[in-house]
Design a protein that fits this description.
- One of its GO terms (cellular component) is plasma membrane.
- The chain has 18 helices and four strands.
- It is globular.
- Helix content is 72%, strand content 3%.
- It starts with 7 loop residues before the first helix and ends with a helix.
- It has a single domain, classed as Up-down Bundle (Amino acid/polyamine transporter I).
- With 474 residues, the protein is mostly helical.
């Protein structure tokens, strides 16, 4: 059976659809809490520039190393001698961390979906206690949220089992609808923008102990949150082996990033100019609350509907991504061989099933947390899980430019790519340092990463078998 291929626009839709998901709906609140308006703007600009460098690295590697597909984590093994323990271990651990980030990211998007669904069904926010399990009170709203999240996750599971290309087309339709809707939101919000709502541009923020946080500290605090909005920029790279042309992978990555950046900066600044700061920080669905102030309740329903379409597309894209990452890693000998199992439609069925089963475990957090608390917790862990592969891809690009591999006599291209790799590496280090300043978050991130060690013997055995087969066939 001929493998279904993805063209430029389906790849771009995956990039935009996966980036412009839960982040745009919840981040205005998270950012208002973390930083002053000036801090938020600076965080967006720094993050946008850093992610652009990272996207250029991804696009370049897709063209120069087309055989290494499946995501940025794949490059980890290339930093060490081929077939060595260090190469296999680094490739596996990087893939493991990236995979955890994927299915944790799914949960952030799915929980945001139910948050926006509560616009139509307020019972989802009900605080009525139904029963207790030990010291945990099970509330009606939380239980219904859990059930809807579960239904959405497994609904997407069965859609994807019917074929990657069909799922990609559905994602494209949802992405086109939301991009159009967000640009309409920006146009409407421009007329209602009130400078007084933003307040002082460099207003202070305070930590838990009541100490004032300076502008640089605010930018650091906002950096991990703004990066979450760009997670997914590598989506086209993950599906590089399914692309019609490798050049489309780079084009889709850059085009998707620019579309998302325009939407993010426009919406985050405009929402700050519509909702007063105190209301914004307390909001569980800031975009809906902002449009209600402009157009009344009917506007809120329209935007909530747009949000639901958008998040359905994002959920589809992220569930696809979650299954593809360990599948491609297994093809490279960097993950357990069971992940290679496909169905008749060439969908990685085992990988899809296990990824969603693990996402289901994360969804249990909705039973005891509010939407915003669950969202904040999950995006922090997921973002830090992504940063290591981003850093590795940048270092690998740097290695290619230093050794001259794949460049032959193209000195100018080699220098430009080297500068881009250095900037992308510095950016990754900055966000990792900022994000792990909190020891609790750091330790949790390390624990999630190290949890994969128990599977390493299986991966090492699979890698050795794969290498032996290659030697025999050669």
């Amino acid at each position: 059976m001929q493998q279904q291929k993805l063209g430029l626009w389906l790849l771009t839709a995956l990039v935009v659809g996966n980036m412009v998901g839960s982040g745009i709906f919840m981040l205005p609140r998270s950012l208002a809490e973390a930083a002053s308006p000036l801090g938020v703007i600076l965080a967006w600009l720094l993050t946008g520039a850093g992610v652009l460098m990272t996207a250029l690295v991804f696009g370049n590697l897709a063209i120069r190393k087309p055989e290494l597909n499946g995501g940025p984590q794949i490059y980890a093994k290339e930093l060490f001698p081929k077939g060595s323990n260090a190469a296999i271990l680094s490739g596996f651990m990087s893939s493991w961390g990236y995979w955890i980030g994927n299915f944790a990211g799914n949960v952030a998007i799915i929980t945001t979906f139910t948050s926006y669904l509560s616009t139509f069904f307020p019972v989802l926010t009900s605080k009525q206690t139904l029963f207790a399990i030990g010291s945990l009170d099970i509330k009606l709203g939380n239980l219904l949220t859990f059930l809807i999240c579960t239904a959405l996750l497994w609904g997407m599971h069965f859609i994807i089992l019917r074929g990657i290309e069909d799922a990609g087309k559905l994602n494209f339709a949802a992405t086109a609808a939301k991009v159009l809707g967000f640009f309409l939101f920006i146009v409407i919000a421009l007329f209602a923008f009130e400078k007084s709502s933003i307040g002082p541009l460099a207003a202070p923020r305070y930590d838990d102990a009541g100490h004032s946080i300076g502008l640089l500290g605010q930018v650091n605090n906002a950096a991990v949150s703004t990066l979450w909005a760009f997670i997914g920029v590598e989506s086209a790279i993950v599906f590089a082996s399914r692309a019609r042309k490798q050049a489309d992978v780079k084009r889709a990555t850059i085009l998707g990033l620019l579309i998302a950046l325009a939407i993010y900066i426009g919406i985050s600044v405009l929402v700050m100019g519509i909702l007063p700061q105190k209301e914004l920080i307390q909001s569980e669905k800031p975009l809906v609350d902002a449009i209600i102030m402009i157009l009344g309740p009917s506007g809120g329903y329209i935007l909530a509907g747009l949000g639901l379409i958008s998040l359905l597309g994002s959920t589809l894209g992220w569930v696809l991504l979650s299954a593809e990452v360990p599948y491609q890693a297994a093809k490279q000998g960097l993950f357990m061989r069971a992940f290679l199992k496909e169905n008749k439609k060439e969908v990685p069925s085992f990988s899809l099933l296990l990824s969603n089963a693990l996402a289901q475990i994360f969804i249990f957090s909705t039973i005891s947390h509010s939407m915003s608390a669950a969202f904040d917790f999950v995006i922090y862990i997921a973002t830090l899980a992504y940063l290591v592969p981003y850093f590795i891809a940048s270092v690998f690009q740097l290695k290619l430019t230093l050794t001259g591999e794949t460049y032959k006599r193209a000195l100018r291209a080699r220098v430009i790519d080297g500068v881009i790799a250095v900037l992308a590496t510095i950016y990754s280090i900055w966000v990792i340092v900022s994000g792990t300043a909190d020891i609790k978050t750091f330790m949790l991130g390390v624990a999630l990463l190290l949890s994969g060690i128990i599977f390493y013997p299986q991966v090492k055995k699979a890698a050795q078998q794969s290498e032996e087969k290659q030697k025999i066939s050669a």
